Sequence to fold (576 residues):
Amino acid sequence: MLVLGIDTSSYANAIGVVDDGRVLADFVFETRHESLSKIMLNVDGVLKKANLGLEDIDGFGVGLGPGSWTGIRIGVTVGKIFAYCTGKPVKGISTLEVLAYGARDCQTLICPIVDAGARETIYAAFYRSGNDKVHQVGDYYVGDLPGLAEMIKEPVVLVAADVPKYRNVIGQLLKSNTIEALESAPSGVVVALLAAASLQSGEHDDTLALAPLYLKESTAKAFVNKYLKRNQAAQQG
Amino acid sequence: MLVLGIETSCDETSAALVADGRTVLSNVIANQLELHRKYGGVVPEIAARRHTELIGYVINEALDTGGKNLRDVEAVAVTAKQGLVGSLLVGVAAAKTLSYALRVPLIGVHHIEGHIFANLLSNPDIPLPHVCLTVSGGHTLLVYIRGYCQYELLGGTVDDAAGEAFDKIAKFLDLGFPGGPVIDRLATQGDRKAFNFPRPLSKAKTFYFSFSGLKTAVINAFKNQLASGEALPLEDIAASFQEAVVDVLVAKTMRAARQREVSAVSVTGGVSANRRLREMFTDTCNRGGIKVYFPDLSLCTDNAAMIAAAGHARLMRGQSDDLSLDVIPNVPLEVQHAG
Ligand SMILES: [Zn+2]
Fold:
């Protein structure tokens, strides 16, 4: 089964193609603010390098975030419309699971962390590995680092793009040396691998309903509050 | 030629099928008003989220109600210029994916050009050249239309858009959002001469508009009324405010029509649905021997049919975009001089 994976949650176009667990293509294009203008050219380039056409693809995987929501909306829209146009299934994958998958060889608790953009706020979750997979334990976490540190009661491996930052802070908070750190970034090929595993067992998302993984409504509310404050200031000024 | 249009520049998620740039087979508009109403305006982050959730459904619905399937689509047109960046990019991402997957041309359209084509869709026999006024919550723009896709900008607003003034006054008077329809409704029961509000820049020789002074005058009148302890004639305030806005819009457009010696004017955009505006334009144009055109009411607010029509016209002139198409949130309408 050929699966195309796309993750745009980090202002990069991360694109991968897998065939039954075999990696055919794995690219991360630094795009910064050119995610939209580059995405289709990059997908086309990756397919051509793998000697494939869109019609060869049997299913799609999409990184749902958390991360840069602007970037994620691009990837989710592209993945959803690809699935719609080709009539092939699509599966959305949590970007935290993608990061955790990078630490699947670790026997300790796995804790991927993504910057939430707003000051001091992070997204995180806990996973354990088993059978070459990672399984989420508990809920997603949205909050500050001290709050996350409080939840850590055992040896842990932190996985993040800017991992030294988190390791130092959490290490100090816990006064513990049972913390490992693994640097990792969102990956299209991991999205494809995880999506392929689901799609092969017949599990997929409703194509038209596919949406980013907004972890907390309060993220939208934070924007709304900012907007209301700005509006009030404008009216008073 | 069957063009699929997509419009997500503000708070409407829309997809449409238009045949040969003339016949609207479907025009699906998912309105987000309910989501934004409590904030008295469009919240960009909420709009972008909603577009992402709705975009697949509206495209599917446009094909269904148009009685076509994906394989029938021969080109995809999308609003790529002018609007909220986070909203625009959802539509453009969808459009370029469709273009790539279906192997059909992609055309990025300027939102204002879409509004101009809303009028051409409703009135195919509209004479050229003519003067077009685009009025909505986001724009107030006078354009001289030399020919299809050949525009000359005559003037725009230096502060608020006309529709924005309606929204702000409605918000101040606590009438709800969007302001245009509520004020239109309330004004029918009011006296338009009760308050003599200023007509900013209406005597100026330029084609620039300004509505923020008028907004302040209305707010002051309201506060004075409140302080005097007399009953608050909200209907009169609404009618007098609306009269001042429409007066300025008509005066400037007529001045432009006379200066350019055209025999016709067109009015388009959300505010062109306003009943008093249509009435005053019709009366004034009749007296001046000038023809006036309005889009069908269904094509006044933001919609994808107008984008498909504009995209079709561009494509017929040999213009299209490649897959690197990006969004430009703030850019004037492209001006092309003939010859
Ligand atoms: Zn508009």
